[in-house]
Structure formats: C-alpha cells, structure tokens
Amino acid sequence: MIKPKKSLGQNFLNDKNILAKIVSVTKIDGKSILEVGPGTGNLTSYILKKNPKKIFLIEKDKNLISILINKFKDQTIINDDILRINEKKICKEKLTVFGNLPYNISTEILCKWILNLDRNYFWFDSLVLMFQKEVANRIVSETNTSNYGRLSVLANWKLDIKKICDIKPSSFFPKPKIDSSLLIFKPKKKFHNIKNSKNLETITKVFFNQRRKMLKKPYNQLFNGNFEIAKKLNIDLNLRPQNLSHEIYYELTEEYENL
User: Fold this and answer.
1) Which CATH number fits domain 197-258: 3.10.20.810, 3.30.360.10, 3.30.470.10, 1.10.8.100?
2) Interval 157-177: pLDDT, tens
C-alpha cells in the first residue's frame, strides 16, 4: 500500500460519488485530457470511462509512476514537477485539465497558468481543479468581502470561474484537516488588454499589501501623485483596496502601462 507523502501535500481522493461528480462537470468524450497529480489513478479511471481521446498524466512522485504505468500503459505518463513544465508543449490540441492540486502549491500552480497565458491563445478549454476551501473562497470572492484580494483579481482577469461543490475530509485518504472545494475555470471571450501580466501583479501587490489603509498611499506610490487617473476612473481614494472591483484593477493596470 502506498503511503501518501506529506511533503508533496498528498491526499488521495477515493470517494466514488465525488469522483463521478468531477467527471460530469465538463465534456470529456473525444477530448485530450491533462491530469495533474493523479496519485494512484482513482480519478484517471473515472475519466477513462468518459472516452477521452488521450490522457496525459503529470506526477512528481516517482513511487507512484510504476503504479500509473501498470494501470494506464496506453496513456502518456510524465514524471515531473508541474511548476517546471511548459504545458503548451504537451499537446497540439487544447487540453481539458483536471487536478486535485497539492494544497501547499495550489495557488502557485494557478498563478503560473494565469500569468503565462498568451494574449490571444489559451492552451486549455477548461480547468477543473480542487483547492483547499479557504483558497477557493479567495479565488471566487467578490468586492467588499474579507476574502477579496489579489488572487481573485488575478484569477478573474481572463477566466470565468464557478464553484461546483465543497468536499469533506472523509472523501480523502489520509483525511485532511480542512474542507476542499471544486472549481471550474473557463476562458473569457473578452478581457482587458494588459500588455504584461507582471504589471497586474505589481498593481495588486502594492494595493493589497496595504489592504487596511486608504487607497491614497498605494495609489501615490504607483502613480506619483497623478490624481487625473483616479478622477478618470472615478476612484474615491478614501476607500480601501477591497472596495475596488476587478474591473478597476484591470483599468488601473492599463493606465499604469501607459505612463
């Protein structure tokens, strides 16, 4: 029996009802699938029942590779770290992505995918991903809420996001100490034309690092006292960072790039 590794954030999903629910979230039949962190292949088996064209499995743990090869010898199995891989080179077709992401690097993986997207091309048609519930709540959070912050602004730039369900610890082995949530991400047809995603990172970092302070201080830091942009965007600088909508942050980034 394989012992899950704490260092890799391994919690294997083994709840048949949840596994069935995950593969019903988006179309799989005839699609090329990428599964990140398949573990012992529980979800992979359910994906195969839905007749995908091809499955690519990326697993970092060398101890699990032999299990996956024995179970899924006709599929492409890659023993590597998802943070080091160029996903665009995996397949010429757009991928449908599934992943029970390791909690310790889930936001890092998501931010990598979001911020490295080409301006007019998405290498995936949907992402069906599991996160720690607390992180998922931050991703889908709305303006004027305590969870609202950088992650929500970054994630909602080019993607439409929907929460599918929460998942209890009893659905995993070993049982994590917290609940999980399943989210689906789909590319937006229209989004703000920010030239360099690093500028959106900069804008959100400066504002949300001072989230309890009024907007005036971080605004001055970025725009050197040029209040014309705030007037143009109708921003009240006496508000706080969580009071600004996603759209305002994208517009601020565009203005920042035009300076």
Assistant:
1) 1.10.8.100
2) 999 999 999 999 999 988 888
